[in-house]
Amino acid sequence: DGGITQSPKYLFRKEGQNVTLSCEQNLNHDAMYWYRQDPGQGLRLIYYSQIVNDFQKGDIAEGYSVSREKKESFPLTVTSAQKNPTAFYLCASSTWEGGSDEQFFGPGTRLTVL
Amino acid sequence: AQSVTQPDIHITVSEGASLELRCNYSYGATPYLFWYVQSPGQGLQLLLKYFSGDTLVQGIKGFEAEFKRSQSSFNLRKPSVHWSDAAEYFCAVDPLSGGYNKLIFGAGTRLAVHP
Fold it and tell me: How far is it, in rounded angstroms, from Cα A103 to Cα A88?
């Protein structure tokens, strides 16, 4: 089955630690995205990538970093510089043919800072 | 400012009743419009989307939405709600600017269904 997988489902971090969230897709999509979800605020874009070895900052990129070395993978690192990292993180992917199309979402990773 | 507004944070309906979830956007040109649903602790699933053409769009799970340009609205409807429809619903807009599939999400409406 084609889809997006995220791991782990739950992640606990101590203050001052970096953690990396995994996102893998087998939909052959060019574009991938990372969103952060907080209660009552909808989804906010952290980073996006339209093609391998290229990525752009979204609306709330501070304290996060990404890489896109393979088409199917787009890991997100939450660094110690992120002041309030406790949230639900969603990865998504879409085709990119110069126009808009739906984004497909993974099941999410819930990150809690202890 | 450009935004997507879902005026209702929580809605409670009885099973079998009709449902309408509101969504308004403030973008100059007609954007692409989406409704997604999220079950607790899960990712988002697309219910339906509007790009152009017929302003009444049919989606999955018996949902439909109507685009009204004059009101900058894209309200989601279902004639008869099932208990399994309890979830959070997000309206999203692609303003067709910025050169990529940029989605702006509303804050969401949480739907509760009474038996």
Answer: 17
B19: its two tokens: 């449902």
Q: How far is it, in rounded angstroms, from Cα A110 to Cα B50?
A: 31
CB A33 within 8 A of CB A23: no
Instruction: List the single residue in A4, A6, A31 with the smallest CB-CB distance to B100.
Output: A31
Distance from CA of B33 to the nearest CA of A (A): 10
B11 to chain A, any CB pair closer than 8 A? The answer is: no
CA atoms of B55 and B69, how far apart (whole Å): 9
pLDDT in tens, A43-92: 999 999 999 999 999 999 999 999 999 999 999 999 998 989 999 999 99
| pLDDT tens, residue by residue, B8-49 | 999 999 999 999 999 999 977 778 999 999 998 899 999 999
Q: Cα B55 vs. chain centroid, distance in angstroms?
A: 14
* Token code pair at residue B35: 């409704």
A13 forms beta bridges with: A113
Comparing CA positions, the residue from A93, A95, A100, A101 lying closest to residue A34 is: A93
Contact (Cβ atoms closer than 8 angstroms) between residue B57 and residue B49: yes
SS3 content of chain B, % helix, strand, coil (to 5): 10, 50, 45
Task: Give the whole-angstrom CA distance, residue B90 versus residue B46.
Answer: 9
Residues of B in contact with A45 (CB under 8 A): 102-103
CB-based contact (8 Å) between A85 and chain B? no
